[in-house]
Amino acid sequence: MAAQLLWGMLFSSIGVGYFIYGKKQGSLIPLICGIALMAYVYFISNVYLLVAVGVVISAVPYFLRD
Q1: Alpha-carbon distances, residue 40 vs 24, 25, 26, 27, 35 (angstroms)
Q2: CA–CA distance, 44 with 1 (Å, rounded to integer)
Q3: Where are the alpha helices (DSSP H) in 1-66?
Q4: What is the pLDDT of residue 22?
Q5: In the chain, what percentage of residues exceed pLDDT 90?
Q6: What is the pLDDT of residues 23-52, one digit of tens each?
Q7: For the chain, which residues make up each domain, given as ranges?
Q8: DSSP letter at 9?
Q9: Distance of alpha carbon 50 from alpha carbon 66, whole angstroms
Q10: What average pLDDT does the structure give for the chain?
Q11: How far apart are the first and last CA of the chain?
Q12: In contact, 15 and 34? CB cutoff 8 Å
């Protein structure tokens, strides 16, 4: 339970950063990834899956540029 809370807080914080960056730059991919990172932690209860999905979503703006 504590690990899920800490990982969720970490990925949500990264999501806020992506959201703010995407909004200021007018870039759609970081904006969507930021929203996804802030929202998905409420739907996944397995810690390993939470970390895996968070790493994948966090890496998407690096590989996809608009």
Answers
A1: 23, 23, 23, 21, 9
A2: 12
A3: 2-25, 28-39, 47-63
A4: 96
A5: 95
A6: 999 999 999 999 999 999 999 999 999 999
A7: 2-63
A8: H
A9: 26
A10: 95
A11: 37
A12: yes
